[in-house]
Amino acid sequence: MASPSIVWFRDDLRVGDNPALHAAAERGEPIVCVYVFDEQTDYSDTSVFSDDSPGIRPNGGAAKWWMHHSLEALAGELDARGLALTFRSGPAAQVIAGLQRETNAGAVYWNRRYGLAERELDASIKSSLKEAGVEARSFQANLLFEPWTLRTGQGQPYKVFTPFWRACLGAPTPRHPLPAPSAGHVTGAKTVPSEKLGDWAFLPTRPDWAGGLRDTWTPGEKAAHAELRAFEAEGLGDYQRERDFPSQDATSRMSPRLRHGEMSPFQVWHGVRDASSAEGAASFLREVGWREFGYHLLYHWPKLGTENMRPAFNAFPWNDPDPEVLGRWQQGQTGIPIVDAGMRELWQTGVMHNRIRMVTASFLVKNLLLDWRLGEAWFWDTLVDADPASNTMNWQWVAGSGVDAAPYFRVFNPELQAKKFDKHGEYINQYVPEAGTPGYPEPIVDLGESRKRALAAYDTIKGS
Length: 464
Hints:
By secondary structure, the protein is mainly alpha-helical. It has helices at 19-27, 61-79, 92-103, 116-131, 161-170, 211-216, 221-235, 239-242, 255-260, 265-275, 279-300, 323-331, 337-349, 354-367, 372-382, 390-399, 414-421, 426-431, 447-459; strands at residues 5-9, 31-37, 85-89, 107-111, 135-139. It has 3 domains: 5-141, Rossmann fold; 143-174 and 221-300, Serine Threonine Protein Phosphatase 5, Tetratricopeptide repeat, CATH 1.25.40.80; 311-459, DNA Cyclobutane Dipyrimidine Photolyase, subunit A, domain 3 (Orthogonal Bundle), CATH 1.10.579.10. The chain has 19 helices and 5 strands. Helix 3 (92-103) runs parallel beside helix 4 and helix 13 packs across helix 14. Belongs to the DNA photolyase family. Keywords: Chromophore, FAD, Flavoprotein, Lyase.
């Protein structure tokens, strides 16, 4: 009697270089592929979750839009191989256990996650399955370097990026990507009842604010590979020279692909290395390393998204949030053209150029003296690449509350940043065409005076 394998997809929405799917194909039994939509798990269950567990954060609106289309694309890729993607909703532990009983599966495979709540949930599910005599295995798929494998000479987690990245480069070369299973390599699917993806309401309707996302992106594994090939051929050589200029089409566009697992970091690493050994390749792979560093921090400091890594910042004198002020920042109506351009790019496209992310974040936390968590929450909801590690690490880096943080006295001057990186105003004109006209708002704060206030505020905790 057949003993199917369950492959549980999460943030690995691809068939290529998917170790869990590869293992199921190698096992040689019928395969049940499942995606579980879980916003119902009870994190008060102390038998599963520790006191430090922050819970698994629901995805924001832009990420859900992406997920809907990426899951559709994944279903198509699986269908081409004789497999079906089953959609189930509810507490993941209950859904997976129920699906195993329903199918009499002999094995359940998934790829690892690195947040504390995710790890604790996965460990609990693995333990329960093994107690029931079911093979349960997890795999390294979405990070080049497992967070527990890299330590300082003193045996501690890294807190500074440069030595962390040096350790990564000195570690064994990341494995080569696994091939996608072919139709002939898959024993077949076991058909089980499925919910409808459309019933989960991942797509906005009233109002439909996703027009700019549709114009900018085509989610899915095939599109991810096409974009990587285009970047390797046309953008990689100039990456180091042009990456800081937001009007240039110089970025890889890989961040949402990696976030949702349409592309693995192993595919990116070897694809870029095979394409070029030039300076641009080293510079780009360093950015991949920055993503790795974020997960290294998240693994060792699980409350990275909610608590200051530097305890001194618990006493920082943030301004009370003024809804009007925060709203003008969110809507790109601050009266500072480069800031407004970035915030409008974010709303329209679901991403923001990395240089401008730093400028807009610095403006919020330093010129407006608003808590970094307010900005992080807005980015979480509006970024298609909203990543639980990178998003929070980057906000803490700009605020100065995290490890390897920018010096507290570094306040990005938006006007100087615009002169240096958008000299001819192409980026600003694209998103803020009314800048400089009578209808454009006056600056929400004086940049010079707000910088002085920020430095004074940071001085209050300087000695802590």
